[in-house]
Amino acid sequence: AVVSTQSTGDDASSWEYPWIEGDKGPIAGIDYVSTVNAKFNKLHRNPDTGRWLQAVTTTIARYIFTELDDIRMANNGFLLRYVTESGNPATSFVTFDSPAFPDPEFKPFMDICYIPFTRPVPCTEGQLVYYDLSADTYIAKDGQVHGSEEHLFIGNSGWDGPARSLVDFDIFTFNTELTALHNDAESVYLRLWYEGAEMAKPYNDPRQMERILAAHKVLKTWSDSHATSKVASVSGNQKNRWDAEMMEELTDYDPEVIASDTISEGEDEHNIYFNLTSVFKDWMNDRTSAHGVVIKDSQHESVPGYFLKFASLNNPDPTVRPYLMVCQKKPICEPEDQDPMPVYDADGCVSTTNVTLNYCIAKNGACSGMEDSATNYDYMTGVSALWDEFHVLRTFCKCCTDAAAERIRVPMNCEGQDKSDYDNYVNYITSCECQKCEEVSSKRKKRAVPSKTRLLLRSALKSMLRK
After folding, report:
1. What is the DSSP string of 278-346?
2. What is the rounded average pLDDT for all residues in the chain?
């Protein structure tokens, strides 16, 4: 049988709610996701009665509990299907005890083993954003390109020698002008999913040992479609080589360790994290220096044993692919005080003391929700409302404007003016908000009433055509 996540599109649906195809029953790809599944124990042609069946549903659970919004699936339960080995329709029913069975010993249940691991510093006061990597690969002394494989390898299997993994991030996808890191020390983490140790080829005395993984800043451009132990990239017919096989320290990568993590002998699958904040800041300041990081065994790379295996960008399970976790400052639209200064009125009166006024300002990318630009339609940004020549109101999300204010009394000195001293009142902003977004159509609206000039031109054109 196959267990698949049901996705009816309605979290509150009941069995009275019909399947999308009505009385045809659940349809694969419409009512449930057949590609995310787990197989139970195989049953014999004449199955034994009174026995437990089990399936490892870890992959399904990862889709339900993943932190990635664009991958997470709704927890609408599981659909169990009876599938024959030949692919022919089943000719009998298989019955199981349900949760309503009176004897609790035989009710179905799910065991969940939580993998212990240490998460990076929580991003409680900032905004946590997940960024995809742009490339990854691993290099070994086999001379092969591994950029399209499902896994990354680090360590030494003995037969194949050492292996190092490279990952890269396109810093141009991070808006350095509108976005700031929440913390200069612990804001950017690389997450890798460790799948366990693996030996590439037979070795006489394989040993799985503790390995310390170290991340280093790469100093040279490389390509996941060309990188090997000797070649970094290819330009036309020219091979751009590393300065030494498996990369040269100082010229191909920086010897300083950015971050490290330890994989002990016998460790099971889990996430590991590398704090890349320092090198990420370097990339923000100089985007031309962004060539990613190389991760290698800094303790026993020359000692044969096992490779450590990690999920790559090409892994079929998107929940385990590597990515960056960036804790950014929250986008806010808030008041900011100006320097205290005198207040003048139209008659030349001046405040008896300096007054602190304020204005609304958008920070960290706030109020920039629309990707479109007003300049595409010959309008200026940063205003509350605009009307085009057809009297259609245009509004943009580029403004951070005041939402509430309090009146402040300001005593005015009118000495030398034709009026007495008095109390003026000014507004001090207490809260701000982004102005409302409106979709903007690039299509011209039909003029309701043609102008007189347009009517005269149209009449003249018709007269010319008649001649």
Report:
1. HHHHHHHH-GGG---EEEEESSSTTS-S-EEEEE-TT-S-GGGS-EEEEEEPPPEEEEEEPPPB--B-T
2. 79
